[in-house]
Amino acid sequence: MLPMQTDRGRLEGTQFSPRLRRPMLMAAAFVALFSAGILWSGNGQAEAAPNTIEISNFSFAPAALTVPVGTTVTWVNDDDEPHTVVESNTLFKSHALDTGDKFSFTFTTPGKFQYFCTIHAHMVGTVVVEAGQ
Ligand SMILES: [Cu+2]
Fold first, then answer.
1. What is the pTM of this model?
2. DSSP per-residue string spanning the chain
3. What's the gap in Å between 123 CA and the centre of ligand 1?
4. Which of 30, 32, 49, 114 has the most other CB atoms within 10 Å of its CB?
5. How far does residue 120's CA lie from ligand 1's centre (Å)?
6. Distance, CA 18 to ligand 1 centroid (Å)?
7. What are the pLDDT tens digits along the chain (133 aa)?
8. 133 alpha carbon to ligand 1 midpoint, in Å?
9. How far, in Å, from the CA of 115 to the mean position of ligand 1?
């Protein structure tokens, strides 16, 4: 008989036939790709989470960050070398951060805060904290 009729009969008989499972897998793949698109920017580099400073290649990125008062800033070490995050007046002071380690500090006062890595003194960064309205 006609192939169409045979297929329809099989579809009605089983709820999750291979013909239905495939579009579901494609939908799941689409969702995964769509999610990845949000997390990854066009240049192929991971989009940094807001108020996150990445430590990579012996530098802080972004080297200068401006945030409103009350913001928690998180440093993440992406290097294979340990680094520290220490404010010039020791307002905050991290332990040595291994690869993947994070350090967070909440800025409760406005001002310009310079910090550096105590292991590699040339590694410096700035957080500017702006007063609320
Ligand atoms: Cu360092």
1. 0.65
2. --HHHHHHHHHHH-TT-HHHHHHHHHHHHHHHHHHHHHHB-TTSSBPPPTTEEEEETTEEESSEEEEETTPEEEEEE-SSS-B--EETT-SSBPPPB-TT-EEEEE--S-EEEEEE-SSSTT-EEEEEEEPP-
3. 6
4. 114
5. 4
6. 54
7. 555 554 554 545 445 555 656 666 666 665 554 454 444 444 444 555 789 999 999 999 999 999 999 999 999 999 999 999 999 999 999 999 999 999 999 999 999 999 999 999 999 999 999 998 6
8. 36
9. 11
